[in-house]
Amino acid sequence: MKNLLEDIKKLSAQITEEVIQVRRHLHAHPELSYQEYETCAYVKKQLQALGLETFSVANTGLVAEIKGKNPEKKTIALRADMDALPIVEANQVEYASKNPGVMHACGHDVHTSSLLGTAKILHLLRNEWEGTVRLLFQPGEEKNPGGASYMIRDGALNNPQPKSIIGQHVFPLLPVGKIGFREGMYMASCDEIYLTVRGKGGHGAAPEFTIDPVVIASHIIIALQQIISRNASPKQPTVLTFGKIEGGTTTNVIPNEVKIAGTFRAMDETWRADALHKIKKMAEGIAESMGGSCEVDISKGYPFLKNDPQVTRRIKAAAAAYVGENNVVDIDITLGAEDFSYYSQVIPASFYRLGTRNEAKGITSYVHTPTFNIDEEALKISTGLMAWMAIHELSI
Fold this sequence. Notes:
Mean pLDDT: 97
Number of helices: 9
CATH superfamily of the largest domain: Zn peptidases
Structural class: alpha/beta
Oligomer: single chain
Number of strands: 16
């Protein structure tokens, strides 16, 4: 395996510039969730150039397989997501988004270009390893219900079911060259909460003739925080955040209704279900007790993400061999959410982090911001690393 490791590193270095150009093309042409038509066509063309057969799934998703020697021995899967975000890019770079109001602000251009590079390495070395690697290029990670759920629905994990799946994601909190891992529970479930509080509007100077939905909404927002502080165990990571309140048109008119939108995150499915039930009952009860009403709409999102301990230990060991033990780090849980979690509910899975930060170059912005970018030195690592992880996983 040592010679194979060196071959992968050499190939990765040779194709780095090609991978950078692919990433820049994708970055300049971002598409929103479930609208990745041009991205999908571009990825398909790249895979077909390698001689790989592709299969369309989830409308704008793709599946391809690379078969090594004895392909029936074992199958594992590698995943990349392809969608972008509705953000106006602020970066002054030559490859900045050409699609107004749409930006690859979460690194999915990195994930897709890296997996295409990984595919090339695995294809070129297909006579040097055993088994089958299934490539999943997935749409809609950024939007409920999550493209991964559609990929699974359309059979991306069937015939045969992979023994495990690996996902890679940029991480701007880690310096470039570092790779982050966590065993077990890693990311939270994510549900969207939409509340419509209705009352009776009127003149602001005569509140006695109204049922003020602004006041009712205020009580609901404050009271719902007690579900977290007084119902969740202090040992249970959970958060309820309301990020949008909409109601009224001027200072002296009480509106008929107020709309509230927020997100609920948890890392336990029993508590998740219980909390969502409590949110609904409490919001409705408070509104009713104050003379109004509250319509509660809960959009169920991604489940929690659990990294299989055995798979994580194996790919962590592979990473240590590839980048050196000093560049492999343990990372903390996060209340962020990822639809890779759907895969983790079906087969053993591990989701690791690729360091992309470089303070000397001023590359420090977090994901989902207008100035997010990566140090492209990370692309010298990402392709070969995932190829080596895949081969290592197949050899177990």
